[in-house]
Amino acid sequence: EPEVTQTPSHQVTQMGQEVILRCVPISNHLYFYWYRQILGQKVEFLVSFYNNEISEKSEIFDDQFSVERPDGSNFTLKIRSTKLEDSAMYFCASSDGQINSGNTIYFGEGSWLTVV
Amino acid sequence: AQSVAQPEDQVNVAEGNPLTVKCTYSVSGNPYLFWYVQYPNRGLQFLLKYITGDNLVKGSYGFEAEFNKSQTSFHLKKPSALVSDSALYFCAVRDINRDDKIIFGKGTRLHILP
Q1: What whole-number percentage of chain B has pLDDT above 90?
Q2: Hey, which bits of B1-60 come out as E strands?
Q3: Which residue of A48, B44, B101, B110 could cross-link B95, Cys pair, CB 3.0 to 4.6 Å?
Q4: Which residue of B has its CA nearest to A43?
Q5: Nearest CA of chain A to the CA of B54: how many Å?
Q6: pLDDT, tens digit, for every residue of A47-82?
Q7: B104 reaches A (C-beta below 8 A)
Q8: Residue-wise pLDDT tens digits, B45-89
């Protein structure tokens, strides 16, 4: 069964450093997402991406965050200058169509980011 | 605003007994509802969804959920629990203001006692 794959599975970084989290969505999918889950809290939407541009972003997704689809397979989340409160599990996800058309979002295993 | 509520932080069930994980929703318009499961140190796995049609939806691993419009609920059920069902379960609803976003509940930890 096709999967969303994410790397790294775990990264420890110093506050102020840049981090890039990588994702390979399911191959025929067109919609891409990043969600995050701070330890013990709910899963929160960060950003959605379609047709090479951001469809929507949450208030969490400030200027420190950016997303990119550098080639036909990868989808990356960059945090320019990490803060302690960025420590979380970051989930990449993809879907082959819009939710309103009855499609499903499939998630990766997550990248656990620890900022020290 | 759209939202889902999972009133229980944790549910404990003995192995072999039926289990229910509760979810209620608040949506203007037709709700699209989802259940996801997160096993320890793993990602979110899709279990099932309700879009339209039969109120009883069957999903992966023997789980099912019943859409109840009058009670605005979408409880997850399984007739006979397994220890391996122990995990964190998330209910989610589509954001009707966006075509491509879902909103998660806070999650319910299901603990199956051997």
Answers
A1: 77
A2: 3-5, 10-14, 19-21, 24-26, 33-38, 44-50, 56-58
A3: B101
A4: B104
A5: 14
A6: 999 999 999 999 999 999 999 998 878 999 999 999
A7: yes
A8: 999 999 988 999 999 999 999 999 999 999 999 999 999 999 999
C-alpha to C-alpha distance for B76 and B61, rounded to whole angstroms: 12
- Report the CATH fold assignment for A5-115: Immunoglobulin-like (2.60.40)
Question: How many whole angstroms separate alpha carbon B26 and alpha carbon B4?
Answer: 6
Domain ranges of chain A: 5-115
In chain B, where the domains are located: 3-113
CATH number at B3-113: 2.60.40.10
The string of pLDDT tens digits covering residues B4-43 is 999 999 999 999 999 999 999 998 888 899 999 999 878 8
**Tokens, residue B2:** 């759209």
A50 vs B contacts (CB less than 8 Å):
100
> What is the Cα–Cα distance from B104 to B51, expressed in whole angstroms?
16
B49 touches chain A (CB under 8 A): yes
